[in-house]
Structure formats: C-alpha cells, structure tokens
Amino acid sequence: MLHLVLALSALHLVHLNSGSPDQQRTYVDSGERHLQAGLRGSIALLQQLDPTKFQPLYLSAVLACFCTFARGPAQNELMLLGGDDGALVAWFPMLRGVRSIAEKAGPDLLTTGELAAGKKNVGAGSFAVDSEPYGWSTT
Description:
Radius of gyration: 18 Å
Largest sheet: none
Oligomer: single chain
Distance between the termini: 30 Å
C-alpha cells in the first residue's frame, strides 16, 4: 500500500511543480514505478482473498483509482470517453473494482477494523483518532 501512496504523491508533485519538463518527467516515471509495484501487491492480496484482506484491498483499490485520476487524461481523451473511438476511460474499470470490493466486503467495511472512524483502542504505535473534539458520536 505504501507504493500506492508514493505513486499518488509523485503524481501530485507533477501538478504542483511548474519546474522543468525533465523534473516533471522524473515525477511521472517515479509515480508509474510505484503504481506498478503497488498494483503487484494488490494482485497478491486478490490471490489469497478472505475477509481479513477486504480493508487493505479496498484501500489499495481506492489509491489506485486516485492515481488513475492523477495521471490526467490521455491525448484526445475526454472525461467519460476514452478518445476518438469512444472507448471507456481508464478510470472507469478502476472505479467499478472499488465498488465490487465494497459490495463483497459488505456494509461493515468502513465501520469496523482499522478503517473504523473514532477508534479508541488501536494497536501499539498506531495513530488513534479522538473523535470527541470533532463532535463525532462513537456510540
């Protein structure tokens, strides 16, 4: 999953950096390398799919989808159409994959486990969210 975060970060730097084309190309290349490594890890999760893998797989799919958006459109590509031939854009199958994982995992995907908002007791070294200052209800 870290590779997907690094890929998104590198692709984001392309949009923030108005530097030289060489620098931007370096960020794009780095983002692509990290995206490919992250997708390989996600595929490994799919091969051993069980309910304990739904949350990491969901996060990986969301990050991969964000990376697809961060790449921007290809030449002659519109937001919903993939070009002159009218094919689907690259992000659409990614979004369908996110939805498929969420449907397979069920309604508890974002309310239990590590993705639960406002967790009080998390593992050692984990970041705990204190929901009280934000007015969130934990009950």
